[in-house]
Specification:
The chain is about 70% helix and about 0% strand. It has about 160 residues and is an all-alpha fold. α1 runs antiparallel to α2. The longest helix has about 35 residues, at about 30-60.
């Protein structure tokens, strides 16, 4: 939700900056400001929801993603290598395939909703992009959590990278 809120805010800002004419019969300024307000609200709700879900997982003893954006980005190649080798079973082998499909969909000019439609046309791309970011981020965060747990076990190999 946080990413989607940020994306809505950016779309609203882009509408304010680049759009001169009406959008679906409404002034571009109203649409831009409205999207920015909705994006901020959705982003805040996402932050609150994320904290609540994290607290519940910790209380139940479930693994939670760890690491910041840069640590997770550096962990992605290691995660993919271990999935390919079959040594990391917590991520289904189909998930990286879905990530590639999402990337192809985002790059390809063919869309379910044409981008020519104002605002609505980019929502399918936004949805796929948000899913891709959150899926990769969560998977790498859980992978980092597992790496840290392996480091704490006696006799485990050193995983500092």
């Amino acid at each position: 939700m946080m990413y989607f809120g940020g994306l809505l805010g950016l779309i609203g800002l882009a509408t304010l900056i680049f759009r001169d004419g009406a959008v679906a019969g409404m002034p571009a300024v109203a649409v831009g400001v409205g999207l920015m307000v909705i994006g901020a609200a959705v982003g805040v709700l996402g932050v609150v929801r994320r904290r609540v879900v994290r607290r519940r997982k910790i209380a139940r003893g479930e693994p939670v993603p760890v690491g910041d954006v840069f640590q997770r980005a550096r962990a992605l190649p290691r995660l993919l290598r271990e999935v390919r080798q079959g040594t990391y079973a917590d991520l289904p082998k189909s998930r990286p395939f879905l990530w590639v499909l999402a990337l192809v969909y985002l790059i390809s000019p063919i869309d379910i909703l044409p981008d020519l439609l104002p605002i609505i046309g980019i929502t399918d791309d936004a949805g796929v992009g948000v899913w891709l970011l959150t899926s990769v981020s969560t998977a790498t965060g859980l992978y980092l959590n597992r790496e840290r747990e392996r480091q704490r076990l006696p006799g485990s190999r050193d995983l500092d990278h």
